[in-house]
Amino acid sequence: MDLKSGYPFWTVKNGLLTAFPQLTHDHQTETVIIGGGITGALIADELSRHGHQVVVLERRDVGWGSSAASTALLQYEIDTHMVHLAEQYGEANAVMAYRSCAEAIHSLERLAAELGNVAFSRQESLYFASHDGDVAALKAELAMRKRFGFDVVWLDQRALESGYGFSAPGAILSSLAASIDPYRMAYHLLENVVRRGGGVFDRTQVERLEPNAEGVEVILRNGATLRCQQVIIAAGYESQSWLPEQVAENRSSYAFVTDPLPLDVLGKLSHTLVWESARPYLYLRSTQDGRLLIGGEDDEEDIPERRDARVMEKAQTLAAKVETLWPGLKINPTFCWGGTFAETDDGLPYFGPHEALGPRVHFAMAYGGNGITYSMIGAQLLRALIEGRQHPLSALFSFQR
């Protein structure tokens, strides 16, 4: 699957950070992780730092799939409102999902501090009402979050105009959010896995899996075989090809970064993630070198050639939307790209085994706008499953929910 097009900022900025070898011989390990993006890297790090032997397989270069195209907004705010999750799964589950995403941001912050040089930055999150008709739903969401201790406040139109320089009917301001360079973080995590004695192999494609009573045989396209106890499929949006039915809908999203802008021009945008209530939604964040990273204009296109042809048109549309909100900003799309993403019906991820492949093959499907925070949760959840322990989110994030 062609997961991205154009010039994703992280690959342009970082280049190819480390050359990992290709696996061409038979091998044996405890756990094989299929996928060398940020999700697979977080899982491999969690397992290896707790004494598990892991091998990571990536069919491209590491981080060269969806991680390279991620805009890396780290939010506890799930695309589905807490109010709506409560209606679907009960209040306790909804609150647990949101709190776990909040805890994941703190976990990522600690991990980033340990790794260093991954452009982690604490932010605030501004979720604004796109239309007057959205205000009531946002205020209901605000009330529920406040009731359960989340640090949120309501900003009215005047406060938005004076504080953030644009006009909207109102917004939820959350104190907890962050941003990161997911591509660089994936490399640093996998380098640590190798230092702990694990294996990381790119340009290595899995042909098929053969689960049995003793474990799983992973057959590579080049004919080599890996024998292991557990497999984790963390292949991003390609993971669905291992399932008998689709559990999420593939979409295309578009993004670009601007030229660097002076801090006095960015104002509070230099430390605030901004997104809106409309679906699909416009979102933006700053980078450490003072650029704006702007994304949105999602559509249902699932054919890479058609997605690729729309990149520049979508970038111009996004730029016009931002200039409408902030007439003082002159937006120049410098590096533009499009990428595949997937959405589940309820906005929640899937972690754990599926009956199609049995109990030794686990999926890590961190789908939706919370991909990296979900992946942090999933790393801990999957380690618990592998170690035979219960995790509070194992049922809610399972295929049986």
Automatic annotation (TrEMBL):
Pfam families cross-referenced by the UniProt entry: DAO
EC code(s) of this entry: 1.-.-.-
Top-level class of the enzyme under EC nomenclature: oxidoreductase
GO molecular function: oxidoreductase activity
The organism's place on the tree of life at top rank: Bacteria
Domain FAD dependent oxidoreductase as annotated: residue spans: 31-383
Annotated InterPro entries: FAD-dep_OxRdtase, FAD/NAD-bd_sf
Gene3D superfamilies: D-Amino Acid Oxidase, subunit A, domain 2, FAD/NAD(P)-binding domain
Signal peptide: none
Keyword tags: Oxidoreductase
Name assigned to this protein: NAD(P)/FAD-dependent oxidoreductase
Organism: Vreelandella lionensis
